[in-house]
Amino acid sequence: MAVSKKSTDYYITNANEALELKLVRKSEDIEDDSLAFNPEMTHQVFGDSETIFGYRDLKIKLYYSAAALTTYLGVSYTSKADVDKFDGVEADDIEGNLSKVIQRGYLTNLDDFRKAVLKDNKFVPFGELLRSFNIEARENQPSKSYEVYQCDVKVPGFYKFHERLQTFILWYIDAASFIDIDDDKWKFFVVYEKYKVNGDTLYAVAGYATVYEYYAYPKNIRPRIGQILVMPPFQRQGLGVQLLRAIYQYYVPNPDVIDITVESPSDEFQRVRDYVDVKNFEDLVKDNPEILVDGFSKKLENLFSPLKLSKKQMRRVYEILRLQYTDTKNEADYKQYRLDVKKRLNIPYQKEKADLKKLEKVLKGPEFSAVLSFDNPDVRMDTLEREFRELETQYRRILDRLSLD
Fold first, then answer.
1. Where's the Histone acetyltransferase type B catalytic subunit C-terminal domain (predicted)?
2. For a 10 Å CB count at each end of the chain, is N or C smaller?
């Protein structure tokens, strides 16, 4: 007898809702539902549809001890689809899928996990302490203390710790992939909350960043930030800003570093980056804002260069700062600013246009006309205006945040 679509639907579960993550500091946290959080995405483990077939009332508990990240996996459901009633289609292998991405040796017994949580009392952060800071109390949250540590794979014990830590990127960074930690050019920056219980100092992992040190001739390096993640329970506290500042603190004084770049930054991280960079640069121009009016000059580049940003990011920071000092009610000043930004936005287009012109020697007649059919001045002006407005909106968000400091 065929199974109705409605019956099939009973056994399809949204993986984002079924998967429950938790950072456990003490045994009582295991039963505290308020500490649980869900992933933003699961397609990298459960497929593009982000659904799981074969279970009713499915709950997947993926818990970590807050410091050492010892892992517990528990799967529960009220009923499982009978393969004979679903045309031979078996229920998805949940543990099989997860076991491919979580570290071997994970626990499936809650009593064993409770004992593992107690061992976190002896946890000591890996590597070198770079930065300590406090987050002031706000709303119903008390003040908190944090520390950022830098380490690499040579630090004893960090290899296995990182295997547990990196699983979080699958749930929060799209197109994430695990890195080859055996490559000693990787550096890691981990931020921990530091707190006390009965006089003992304890730690909880709050986020981390990875940096790859690319070689640059003849004996230099170009660090590139690969991934940066703040755990959901610790977001909206400014920890991303502190992580980036720790990375700068580590690399900027190094004379071998040419510049610090970012690999495919998300929109959210680009906002963090812009905020930190503008904050660092504004002190350099506040006593002489006139230096911004002449455009992105060599003099300005030399002024900014000690902070070791890429030229592209320097230009972006310059445009934000210039907007800050531009009287947008003065039409002449505002027009000059718009033209300066649009001129920069138009550079890739002009290069493409020049490259296409070279094709004129190869393509003839209708073929070449088809290639240049997009080359409409009015369309290009509209595109530039739209690109400028989008940038201006982004820039004003940064300036608004700076105004709150």
1. 273-323
2. N
